[in-house]
Structures are given as structure tokens and as C-alpha cells.
């Protein structure tokens, strides 16, 4: 499955399918934030977790009165500044928070483009991590070596599986979103392969 193909498939999903897929992708990214937060004592992982839970709720109950402005205000102070931390984990933490803010903006403005961007952010996180790993092993991290790396291949495969799952969900209900969440986390690791 080529990369462009996955993004094209996401664009072909309907609004709710895209939203639910984006939330599932963030489920795989959020633990990266938790690991960063634990290591640095920065940020409140719970604020991000609660905001993601609110997004799931909004997807399931579109008429629910949810103030995303308030959620965004709670999440924004928890986005780490790259300059303040000298460790690789800062990048996946920023990406997780950015993706979550994107999901909230997308749900607020009904902008499907935000949902497609979340899949791209996740893939960019993996690409950056693969580059970091290759360079640590003194291997030239060109496009080909990044694209062919097992972790990147796996990210593309997982995204494809999640899209399949969403395509086959039918009406989005509490039960099948729960199954989607379980499916997203079934391998017990984040999008960059860290155990959760």
C-alpha cells in the first residue's frame, strides 16, 4: 500500500469516518506524550487524555454541548517548546499535542482537512524517529531508507488497517468506536514502536 494511497483513502471517507480515524491515530500517539512528560516532569498528560475523550464523545454525540475552546485552552500550555528540552522525545510529544489540537479544530470547524493532516503528522513523527535511529547507527537517512524502514512500513500498514476498520464500521456507535480504539492499541505500542 503506497503512502499516497492511504491519504487518498482517508479523503474518500465521510466526515465522521475521518474524525473517528483521526481520534484512533491520536490514541497511538498520545502515549509518546506521556513518556515524554514522565521523563521531563513537564506537562499534564491528563489534560490531553481528557481532551481526546471529549473528542470521542463529540464524534459519538454530535449534538453534545462541548466547549472545544476550553479544551484547547487546557491543552495549549502543555505543548512543549523544542528549545527547552534537549531530547528526541520532545518531537513526538509536540506532534501528539499538535494532532490533538488539530482534531479539536477539525471538530469545531467541521474541517475534514484537519483529519487528513493528523495521519500525515503521525507518519512524519515516525519518519523523524526513523531518521534519528538511522543516524544514531551512522546510516544515511535518505528518503528510501526511511520509507523502507520496518517501522515506517508498519506505520503505513497500521494506518491502512485502521482505514479498513473504519470503512467497515457502518454507523458509528459507542460499541464499534470502542472496538476501533482497542484495534488501534492492540499491538501495545505507540506509532513509533514504544511499548505502552
CATH architecture: Up-down Bundle
Q: Could you tell me the mean pLDDT?
A: 95
Order of helices and strands: HHHHHHHHH
Q: Give the helix/strand class.
A: mainly alpha
**Helix percent band:** over 70%
Q: Which blocks of ≥5 consecutive residues have pLDDT under 50?
A: none
Q: Report the count of strand segments.
A: 0
Largest sheet: number of strands, sense, barrel closure: none
The level 1 CATH classification is: Mainly Alpha
Number of domains: 1
User: In percent terms, what proportion of residues is strand?
Assistant: under 5%
In one word, what is the shape?
A: globular
Radius of gyration: 16 Å
Number of helices: 9
Describe this structure in words.
The protein is mainly α and 196 residues long. The protein has a single domain (12-185), classed as YP_001051499.1 domain like (YP_001051499.1 fold like, Up-down Bundle). It contains nine helices and no strands. Helix 2 runs antiparallel to helix 5, helix 2 (15-40) packs across helix 6 and helix 2 packs across helix 9 (174-185). The model has no long low-confidence stretch (mean pLDDT 95). This is DUF416 domain-containing protein. It comes from Pseudoalteromonas holothuriae. InterPro entries: DUF416 (IPR007338), YP001051499.1-like_dom_sf (IPR023381).
Write the layout of secondary structure elements.
Elements: H1 3-12, H2 15-40, H3 45-60, H4 68-75, H5 90-109, H6 112-136, H7 143-148, H8 150-167, H9 174-185
Helix pairs in contact: 1-8, 2-3, 2-5, 2-6, 2-8, 2-9, 3-4, 3-5, 4-5, 5-6, 6-8
State the gist of this model.
The protein is mostly helical and 196 residues long. The chain is 72% helix and 0% strand. The protein has nine helices and no strands.
Amino acid at each position: 500500500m503506497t503512502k499516497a494511497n492511504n491519504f487518498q483513502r482517508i479523503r474518500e471517507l465521510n466526515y465522521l469516518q475521518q474524525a473517528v480515524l483521526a481520534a484512533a491515530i491520536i490514541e497511538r500517539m498520545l502515549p509518546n506524550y506521556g513518556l515524554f512528560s514522565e521523563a521531563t516532569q513537564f506537562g499534564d498528560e491528563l489534560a490531553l487524555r481528557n481532551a481526546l475523550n471529549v473528542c470521542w464523545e463529540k464524534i459519538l454525540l454530535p449534538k453534545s454541548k462541548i466547549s472545544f475552546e476550553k479544551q484547547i485552552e487546557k491543552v495549549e500550555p502543555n505543548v512543549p517548546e523544542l528549545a527547552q528540552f534537549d531530547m528526541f522525545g520532545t518531537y513526538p510529544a509536540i506532534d501528539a499535542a499538535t494532532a490533538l489540537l488539530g482534531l479539536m479544530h477539525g471538530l469545531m470547524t467541521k474541517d475534514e482537512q484537519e483529519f487528513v493532516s493528523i495521519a500525515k503528522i503521525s507518519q512524519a513523527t515516525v519518519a523523524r524517529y526513523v531518521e534519528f535511529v538511522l543516524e544514531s547507527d551512522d546510516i544515511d537517512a535518505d528518503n528510501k531508507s526511511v520509507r523502507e524502514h520496518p517501522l515506517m512500513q508498519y506505520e503505513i500498514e497500521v494506518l491502512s488497517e485502521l482505514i479498513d476498520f473504519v470503512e467497515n464500521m457502518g454507523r458509528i456507535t459507542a460499541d464499534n468506536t470502542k472496538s476501533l480504539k482497542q484495534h488501534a492499541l492492540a499491538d501495545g505500542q505507540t506509532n513509533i514502536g514504544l511499548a505502552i
